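Is magnesium ion placement plausible here? Inputs below.
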Amino acid sequence: MTMTELRGVGIGLGVAQGPVARMAEPAPAPSDAPSALTAGEETARVTDAVTAVARELEERGAAAGGAAQEVLEAQAMMAEDPTLADEVNTRLAQGKTGEWAVFDAFASFRNQLSAMGGYLGERAADLDDVAQRVIARLRGVAAPGVPDPGYPFVLVAKDLAPADTALLDLDKVLALITTDGGPTSHTAILAREKSIVAIVGATGATGLREGEMVIVDAAAGVVTTEPTTEELDRAQNRAADRAAAASAPITDGALADGTPVPLLANLGNPEGAAEAVALGAEGVGLFRTEFLFLSSSQAPTIEQQRESYTKLLSAFPGKKVVVRVLDAGADKPLAFLNDAHEENPALGLRGIRALRASEDILREQLTALAEADAATEADLWVMAPMVATVEESRYFVDIARDYGIKTAGVMVEVPSSALLADRILADADFASIGTNDLTQYTLAADRLLGSVATFQDPWHPAVLRLIREVGEAGRINGKPVGICGEAAADPLLAVVLVGLGATSLSMAPTAIADVRATLLEHTIDQARAIADAALAADGAASARFAAQQAANR
Ligand code: PEP
Ligand code: MG
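Reply from A.M.:
I modeled the complex. Tokens:
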């Protein structure tokens, strides 16, 4: 029998096993005793250390490429941020050591970032890493980093710095477990991009011993300690099945009876397009435009946006590309859109509500999209996030059509719009269900909050009923209903979603192979029967179990 199970948030669907190697704990905090050097000498030391760390981060970024490079370059900029330098110099002028000045100045900055919460809050760990690196250099010791026990291992850390994740040796690191960090932390983003089996936010992992054997099951978000031989065998078989799915020929998504189920990609920037095509994406089901906006203090110009959208659309000639207009607010706050303080930002001026309050931003985005559409061969669809009412849906569809957008639809992420999907789809051209938010709002559980993570499960029959409602509304109105939340990346749940009426599935490109393989095992009638079994359950775990039973019948 298994001794312990630790839970966290699984990234991707992989499973791996191996001995634990722990990341070294950060060095102790420096003391605030006065420096024996002059303030000028300390300033020179700190400047040298900061410059060296920034260059090293840039070099690591250049070696890693891709999203990692952007993250590391952003960290290098943090290291050399002039405001931070002023803060450090103020402390040096008071006679403190370079080590303490860096420690204290960075800590006060990180506390401000953490207090902002959401996406910015998760950048606080990046700042900590920069501070640790500068302090290590001032002390003349090695920067904290990934261990090398001499054999392949499961890496256990508090949270991984982007600099470490970027250069992980995938032949040695079998899986990753972090005690901190949420699904939108950089560790999670980079693990997803590199297809590393990972579980983040596994608070119980602090107790894992060096060298002990564990199974890391990302699909279930569970770390099994002291596994039995049967458990190890089962995990090995699952890993082998995944490897077989990954090497199976790339075909268009379909059920066993030939019913087509287009498999589309969720993308956050145009650079991801080539990899998505290589993994067999038949188009894009969700392009998240907020990543274009998040790094700037004001909205990008129409020209900048047009360039980015043109790049994206050009990668998919003749294919469907669904672009979502800006979804700002809640976990993705934007200073120029979400300035008012909100106690409950997820229930506040978010998504289409925020755009409506700053309609010029929406109009500029639609202008850029229409121009990119005219210049390319892709089949552009545009949708609005967080639509809660029929009236909001009409508002968006009308304004999109005014700009010449041919296919305008809405995301169903709020229970109210799922329940009234028949009215929404009488007018909108399509619906795309965002299961991440739909689950958050149905179960009243903040998707970023670890303490309520067990509620955030799209298998819950209440969520499935709402999806069935939308599927049925699509059928009656003859309109497509896609799924673009994480749920579509869970192979068995993907079958259930098709059984509930979804006509396409969109997911992280690395999940496509598994979903394709599983869809091919079931006919549409079987998919409906599996969905019925899940719907009849009382809770998420029993729905998953019932679906597994029905699928094996
Ligand atoms: C969703 O909510 O399921 C979704 C796809 O949108 P996001 O995750 O970007 O909020
Ligand atoms: Mg959403």
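Short version: The pocket of phosphoenolpyruvate (ligand 1) is lined by residues 286, 288, 327, 413, 434-437, 484-485 (CB under 6 Å).
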